[in-house]
Amino acid sequence: MSKIKSVGQILGEAREFEKIRTTVENTSVVKEFKNIFPEFKKVVKPKRVQSKTLLLRVEDSVWRNELNINKRKIIEKINKHFGKEIIKNIRFV
Question: Which residues are CB-neighbours of 81 under 8 A, at least 6 positions away?
């Protein structure tokens, strides 16, 4: 007898939906960025996630340098927030 699964379980487990899950996760990183880092709200604008790389727009070179120095900590905090590795790198644009 087969076990009945919810739509959420099917979407969460089926290989066919991997691309959809990745797109949703990437969009969530951009949307949640200001909640994860409220201190960056005025100086950083998340643009998108591409191949596990978060693209951030930073207008001020001083802030860009500071964020670059703390890149590992930022990545760790994002991944911890989501409970898995979503981001491997950050690129400033």
Answer: 32, 36
Instruction: Report the C-alpha gap between 31 and 54 in whole angstroms.
Output: 12
Q: Is 2 contained in some domain?
A: no
Kindly list the averaged pLDDT for each block of 10 residues, start to end, along the chain of length 93.
66 70 86 95 94 94 95 97 95 93
Give the Cα separation of 42 and 62 in Å (integer): 14
Q: Domain residues for 63?
A: 19-92
- CATH number for the domain spanning 59: value is 3.30.300.180
Residue with tokens 């200001």: 34
For the chain, what's the residue count? 93
Report CA torsion sign: 54, 57, 60, 61.
positive
Can you tell me the distance from the alpha carbon of 85 to that of 78, in angstroms, rounded to the nearest whole number?
8
Residue 62: partners with Cβ closer than 8 Å, 6 or more residues away? none
